[in-house]
Amino acid sequence: LPTSTYEKAFLGEGGFGVVTKCRNTKNNQTVAIKVNKGNPKIQQQAKLEIFILEQLRRLDPDRCNIVEWNGYFLDGERICLNFELLDQSLWDYIGDRKNRGLPIRELSPILHQLANALFHLGSVGIVHADLKSGNIMVVNRHESPVKVKVIDFGLAHPASALIPGHRLGTVGYCAPEVMLGIPCDEAIDINCNLTKLQRRNHVKKSDTS
């Protein structure tokens, strides 16, 4: 990592690489750094994510319930993306309730915020394509009602570039149009269904990675 930052804690990992919690030693800001692997396929995917994130700069991240992106840097051959640090995933937030699910009074504002995020993504022609509880972050679990933001645009595409038959997202969360290989649009993001947001005990952990 650049000399202006140092790693503080490991946050998670996936097929792309790892996410670490880092502090910028110049401004004392703590952020989340997504460190992509250096292999060519992951690098190409990271470059597409940067393209998507550049489009999203037109949106207000707080008003639109989308994670704030602070830019990127290179660490050797690895592309590192700098994001605001958020509290925990919705998957973990629900898990803290011992999978009893969220009451409607708490679930309703979360769904409203997700609808708001998807509306604004659609307004700039972007499809997230992998919306699930692991890619929805709670900003601060101690707030009531909680505020959520959509993260991880690693599989996102311009709506105009969607190709019928091209598998997108995580099995179990994919919209029927994607599974059937028929023409689709931004509406595929809506298939993050209510039951899977409310409970997680029937969802495999692999669905969140």
Layout of strands and helices, then pairs:
Elements: E1 5-14, E2 17-24, E3 30-36, H1 40-56, E4 69-75, E5 78-84, E6 88-89, H2 90-95, H3 104-123, E7 126-127, E8 136-138, E9 148-150, E10 157-158, H4 176-180, H5 194-198
Antiparallel strand pairs: 1-2, 2-3, 3-5, 4-5, 6-8, 7-10, 8-9
Describe the 3D structure.
This protein folds into 2 domains: 5-84, 2-Layer Sandwich (Phosphorylase Kinase, domain 1), CATH 3.30.200; 88-208, Orthogonal Bundle (Transferase(Phosphotransferase), domain 1), CATH 1.10.510. A hairpin with a 5-residue loop joins strand 2 (17-24) and strand 3. It starts with a strand and ends in an 11-residue tail after the last helix. The chain is α+β, with helices and mostly antiparallel strands and 209 residues long. The model is unreliable at 201-206 (pLDDT under 50). The chain is globular and about 45 Å long. The protein contains 5 helices and 10 strands; from the N terminus they run E-E-E-H-E-E-E-H-H-E-E-E-E-H-H. The strands form 3 sheets. The chain has a 5-stranded antiparallel beta sheet with strand order 1-2-3-5-4, with helices on one face. The protein has a 3-stranded antiparallel beta sheet with strand order 6-8-9. It holds the Pfam family Pkinase. InterPro entries: Kinase-like_dom_sf, Prot_kinase_dom, Protein_kinase_ATP_BS, Ser/Thr_kinase_AS, Ser_Thr_dual-spec_kinase.
